[in-house]
Amino acid sequence: MISRWYWRRRLLGWAALFWLRRVILRQPLPLIGGLVLNESCNLNCRHCRVNRCTSADLSFAEALTGLRVLFRRGARALAITGGEPLIWGTAGAGVAELIREARAMGFLAVSVYTNGTLPFDHLDADAIFISLDGREPCHDALRGPGVFRKVAARIAEAVHPNLFINQAINAGNVAEVEPMCRWVAAQPNLRGIFFYFHTPYYGIDELFLPLSRRRELIGELLRLKRQNLPVVNSASCLKLVAADRWKRPADLCLVYADRKLFRCCRAVGNALACDNCGYLGYPELQCILQLRPDAVAAAFGYLAGGGKR
Ligand code: SF4
């Protein structure tokens, strides 16, 4: 078992070296590698069409290939996603085993993104991000009857020390921003909530929020942060998004999906999606690279603040 102290020192050492190589030596290293294991899902959410895709899940061997590709390109922080990654794999060759392989390979920080309906507590991930798009009526209207209660029950039973909520704000849940912050603050097993905006991957739809509305919501998020509610997004990033000055597609993330490597995300080349991108993780990475103190502290806080090591 590696001590947390030793692991944090390694993470800090890697981050410092990364910054030198990327900023001073101008090497095109990614800050994060994303691994998309599948496009299948056990839910059928209103805003998502991933489970209508026809790509075959990666096999375990193909997922290992993905890890090697990302590692060779310089990624040391890994984000495991889907589809729903926790329906992926077979007994003895699923996400838990893949995380073990990633650590053995040398990845220093591993996050998992899940809809929270299946057991996640056993995973040796440094952080687990669980999607909740509002309180029960709103979440269930977007994701299906009974889903909120199932997820909330798993969170209530969890012992994993580094659990976060992801909420993608859309026209159907704008009223849920403050209530969700307060709900998360009241859950002893949650450390915070990270907000995104709905991205029009499939064209402008009824859930889309234009920049003018996003700016108002960013004002609300900044106000909630000042009230010490557990909004994980940094103020620097939120202001960058409000100013619409973040570079996209971003070159700080590589994604291995469907046996191919993508820069930024699989929608790269979709100008409408990029212009209106609501994936706030990437402007956060740009703020980290610019050494904005609040963005660096937020990232280190959620990657190194908990974890099972
Ligand atoms: S929609 Fe465009 S900018 Fe947003 S994550 Fe995907 S490729 Fe990057």
Radius of gyration: 18 Å
Helix percent reads 25-40%
Please give the largest β-sheet: 8 strands, mixed
CATH topology name, in short, is TIM Barrel
Strand order of the largest sheet: 6-5-4-3-2-1-7-8
The beta-strand count equals 8
Strand content: 5-15%
Q: Any idea how many domains?
A: 1
- The 3D shape can be described as globular
Mind telling me the CATH superfamily name? Answer: Aldolase class I
Output the helix-strand order: HEHEHEEHHEHEHHEEHHH
The average pLDDT is 93
Low-confidence regions:
none
Alpha-beta content class: alpha/beta
- The helix count comes to 11
Oligomer: single chain
Span between termini = 7 Å
The level 1 CATH classification is Alpha Beta
Structural overview:
- The protein is an alpha/beta fold and 309 residues long.
- It has one domain: TIM Barrel (Alpha-Beta Barrel), CATH 3.20.20.70.
- It contains eleven helices and eight strands.
- The protein has an eight-stranded mixed sheet.
- Helix 6 links the parallel strand 5 and strand 6.
- Helix 2 runs parallel beside helix 3, helix 7 packs antiparallel against helix 8 and helix 8 crosses helix 10.
- The radius of gyration is 18 Å and the shape is globular.
- The site of iron/sulfur cluster has 13 residues, from helix 9.
